[in-house]
Amino acid sequence: MAQRRMMEELSWDAFSSLPLEARAPYFLQSSGRPYHCVIAQQFDRECLDHLCDLATRIRRIAKSKVGMDFLSSLMRNKRAMLYFTQPSTRTFLSFFSACQILGFSPAEVRDTSISSEMKGETKEDTIRTFSSFFDLIIMRTPMQGFAEQMAWMISRTERPVPIINAGSGKDQHPTQALLDIYTLERSFEHTGGIDGKTVLFCGDLLRGRTVRSLSGLLTQYNNVKQIFAAPDCLQIGQDILDMLKAKGIEYEITNDFKGHVKDADAVYMTRIQDEWDTKPGESATMSYKHEDYWFTGDDLKNLSPKGVIMHPLPRRQEISTDCDDDPRAVYWRQERNGMWIRAALIATIFCRDQEITQYYMLNNR
Ligand code: CP
Fold first, then answer.
1. Residues with C-beta less than 6 Å from any ligand 1 atom
2. CA 224 to ligand 1 center in whole angstroms
3. Separation of alpha carbons 360 and 356, rounded Å
4. N or C: which end of the chain has fewer CB within 10 A?
5. Helix (H) or strand (E) holding 181
6. What spacing in Å lies between the alpha carbon of 92 and ligand 1's midpoint?
7. Chunked in runs of 10, what are the mean pLDDT values of the chain (365 residues)?
8. Which pTM value belongs to this model?
9. Position in ligand 1 atom list of the atom nearest CA 313
10. How far from chain centre, in Å, is Cα 347?
11. What single DSSP character describes residue 235?
12. Are 199 and 265 a contacting pair, CB within 8 Å?
């Protein structure tokens, strides 16, 4: 396999010191389809359009029993391991559901205290053990870069299997970014798509991996402006700003969230990621007015009638519940979109995308 040969050429140190864009092709199949899914930078516009179209086809096919029977026949002989060593509700459940939709038998390890890691087995050996029994590994980890390192490692073994990063450290959450893109595509379907829109990010942008991955994917669209609204202590990383600058993307950083709601087509709220606090309670005592970065019912009147409010969830106070019934609040649809786009991603990795499209053309148009 070309992808494996490429991995074998480089040590991990040499590989991981390459710029992100240079690493991205190593995670693709020779057809250009993703093999591993570990960093947002591996997705180009063509692949994003493909995944969004396929997600819609799967979603429509799944409306009927006969359609569900077709989808679940596609990979009935495959097994998937969901290795989640960090808390998760919707990423775990949407991957679990996506696997079931496509016929995979999903299994899980969420509590390493009952795995052989408790006996001193390394995480590397644990992942390699999964590849002895499963055809796909989906993993969430608090360790930045670990999913990528495991993709590199497993590609060099006798039994390589695809690895999907379901969130790694403070750095990347590429499948969340895919579902965010799919949600934006669906939301702006009748208003020209994502091109030309303004996305206003708010909250803990320093430690929020969803924003970092989505910011990268948005660069694949034309003339999308990105505004980062956060207190100085939680502002977006300089590496993201450098990436936007290098690509000639228009962006703005500000402390004035409320004043920018009127400029946004999409408002993307995030919670304080206090699980990364160096001292317990550190986030709560940070000296800024926390409510300045909350979206309330009063902010609805400043949002464009065709705008949307998004959130990767879970939320705390960042969006008041009195916004939930507004048609522009799309975060619950966004969550469900995760199941469809993750099914599309898995089907594409396993090269069943064309079969799904053929079925759709014959039965669902
Ligand atoms: N958005 C997200 O990653 O949610 P979970 O932590 O519940 O999976």
1. 88-92, 167, 176, 312-314
2. 25
3. 6
4. C
5. helix 174-187
6. 8
7. 68 93 92 96 97 98 98 97 97 98 98 94 97 98 96 95 97 97 98 98 96 98 98 97 97 98 98 91 91 97 98 97 97 98 98 98 89
8. 0.96
9. 1
10. 16
11. P
12. yes
- Which amino acid, residue 20? L
Ligand 1 centroid distance, CA of 299 (Å): 25
Mutate to test the pocket of ligand 1, among 83, 84, 89 (most ligand atoms within 8 A of CB): 89
Closest ligand 1 atom to residue 166 Cα is 3
DSSP state of 87: -
Rounded CA-CA distance 219/239 in Å is 14
Q: In order of start, what are the domains of the chain with their CATH numbers?
A: 2-172+337-356 (3.40.50.1370), 174-336 (3.40.50.1370)
Residues annotated as part of the active site: 90-91, 119, 140, 173
Query: What is the C-alpha separation between 38 and 148, in angstroms, rounded?
Result: 6
Residue 273: count other Cβ atoms within 10 Å of its Cβ.
18
